[in-house]
Amino acid sequence: MNELKIPLKVKEELDKVSRIAGYLWQREWAERNAGNISINLTSFFDKEEIQGANEYVPFDFPKETAGFVIFITGTGCYLRDLIDKIEEAACIIHINDDATGYSIIWGGRKEGFAPTCELISHVSIHLFNTKNNPSHLAILHTHPLELIVMSHHELFQNEEKLNFALWRMCPEIRVFVPKGVHCTPYALSSTEALAKVTIEAFKTRNISLWEKHGATATGEDIEKAWDYLDVANKAAKLLLMCWSAGFEPAGLSKEQLTELEQFT
Ligand SMILES: [Zn+2]
Fold first, then answer.
1. Which residues contact 232 (CB under 8 A, 6 or more apart)?
2. Is residue 23 within 8 Å of 83, Cβ to Cβ?
3. Fold: same for 1-143 and 148-264
4. Please, are residues 235 and 241 in contact by the beta-carbon 8 Å criterion?
5. How far apart are CA 163 and CA 59, in angstroms?
6. Which of 2, 6, 108, 164 is most buried, by the most CB atoms less than 10 A from its CB?
């Protein structure tokens, strides 16, 4: 394998991934091989340095992703291993010039390693962000407990009502998840169908809440992607706590929520 020396700026992004992986494990959001992470690193690399001697694994990428450089976690890998064995549980890939294959240019040091089976979803979302939301370079898919619980509730069938129920739990949720949560209908993991519904979600919302499965968010870096999920999950947790205690929350009023819009 043609191992690349990674730029300092990339190392900083990888250190953030290790830190967030610790949070995911502590919060019980990343059991076994649950979840996956990717970062679009294309702008961090010098093209000349990457091209050349690499061998490419055939893969049918969207044509416009030719030349992309992506950090991505491995299939079957445990996200908790990102804390101290990131080069075994993840890799950096380079997509070739006609988008027909990828080469692992860093990491993936575990026997039989391959990028996550959600590779097509991640690359498709990166392409979408390049065009529509270019500052968002990181994608985090994980299993936040209380948000998943809410995806089993009847509120999940009415996106507007679900977002109102979450936003009114406390001011920071309205401010830091300003576009809210998308109720993304169930689709089988690692399919193009799932990639499609997730991109649909990001056209209008900050978070794609996958029915009876988990949630996905994008952010400027992995920490910002985490923040969306952390704040939204807090709302779900507060709501469930009120219900567990046997009362309906009073909730912020519509006027109070409107007043908060100036901070979004
Ligand atoms: Zn999942």
1. 144, 147, 166, 173, 177, 181, 206, 207, 215
2. no
3. yes
4. no
5. 38
6. 108
The β-bridge partners of 218 are 139
Amino acid at position 14, single letter: L
Instruction: Report pLDDT digits (tens) over 196-211.
Output: 999 999 999 999 999 9
- Give me the count of residues in the chain: 264
* Interatomic CA distance for residues 35 and 79, integer angstroms: 7
Q: Does the domain spanning 1-143 belong to CATH 3.40.50.1820? A: no
The dihedral built from the CA positions of residue 13, 15, 16 and 20, taken in this order, carries a sign that is: positive
Domain boundaries, the chain: 1-143, 148-264
Ligand 1 centroid from CA 77, angstroms = 12
Active site residues: 118
- Architecture in CATH for domain 148-264: 3-Layer(aba) Sandwich (3.40)
pTM for the model: 0.96
| Short-list 167, 165, 143, CA closest to 154 | 165
Edge-first strand order for the sheet with 69-73 is 57-58, 101-107, 90-95, 69-73, 36-40, 138-142, 214-219, 207-210, 181-184
Centre of ligand 1 from the C-alpha of residue 252, in Å: 32
Closest by CA position to 215, among listed 135, 156, 127, 161 = 156
Residue 144 parent element (H or E): none
CA of 66 to the centre of ligand 1 (A): 27
